[in-house]
């Protein structure tokens, strides 16, 4: 996974200290033969199935981030329907010792063009899965993200459940 240049520049100054970053996730739904399906990608770094996601670039709107990531990672065009959650994630320590904490913006979207495929190498596989039978292994928060998406709460959910 290529690290954005702005993060590499920050790391030159702070080393492995915790970085506060904005992230964005997109749950893409469709109605299929078996009911509601969700588009997931298998992450190339850890093999987990996950929603489309990425780091928000400086000055970028998080909704634009997920549109860009869908194009780069999955070769698809999406339309963001609405924001569903805002969550402060637990600190993550990467294998190289870098630490990050993300403010995660969650969106629901729909496919408007293209066919899912392998883009920039961050994802090794894609598939549509029944929303009530998500594949394993999967990202820890995926089930909660899909649940919120299906429930379509009136207000933005502030914080996802920790299990």
TrEMBL record:
What cofactor does this one take?
Mg(2+)
- Sorted UniProt keywords: Hydrolase
Q: Which Pfam families match?
A: NUDIX
Q: Where is the Nudix hydrolase domain?
A: 19-155
For the keyword Plastid, the answer is no
Q: Which SUPFAM superfamilies match?
A: Nudix
PROSITE patterns according to UniProt: NUDIX (PS51462)
Query: Where are its TM segments located?
Result: none
Gene3D superfamilies membership: Nucleoside Triphosphate Pyrophosphohydrolase
| MF (Gene Ontology) | hydrolase activity
List the residue ranges forming a coiled coil, or say none. Answer: none
Keyword check for Transport, yes or no.
no
- Protein name as it appears in the record: Dihydroneopterin triphosphate pyrophosphatase
């Amino acid at each position: 996974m290529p690290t954005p240049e702005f993060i590499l520049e920050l790391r030159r100054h702070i080393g492995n200290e915790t970085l506060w970053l904005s992230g964005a996730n997109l749950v893409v739904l469709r109605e299929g033969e078996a009911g509601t399906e969700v588009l997931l990608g298998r992450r190339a770094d850890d093999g987990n199935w996950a929603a489309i996601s990425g780091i928000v670039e400086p000055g970028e709107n998080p909704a634009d981030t997920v549109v860009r990531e869908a194009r780069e990672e999955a070769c698809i065009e999406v339309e963001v329907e609405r924001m569903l959650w805002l969550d402060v994630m637990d600190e993550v320590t990467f294998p190289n010792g870098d630490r990050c904490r993300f403010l995660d913006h969650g969106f629901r979207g729909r496919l408007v063009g293209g066919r899912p495929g392998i883009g920039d190498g961050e994802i090794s596989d894609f598939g549509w899965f029944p929303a009530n039978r998500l594949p394993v292994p999967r990202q820890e928060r995926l089930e909660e993200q899909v649940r919120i998406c299906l429930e379509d709460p009136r207000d933005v959910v502030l914080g996802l459940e920790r299990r």
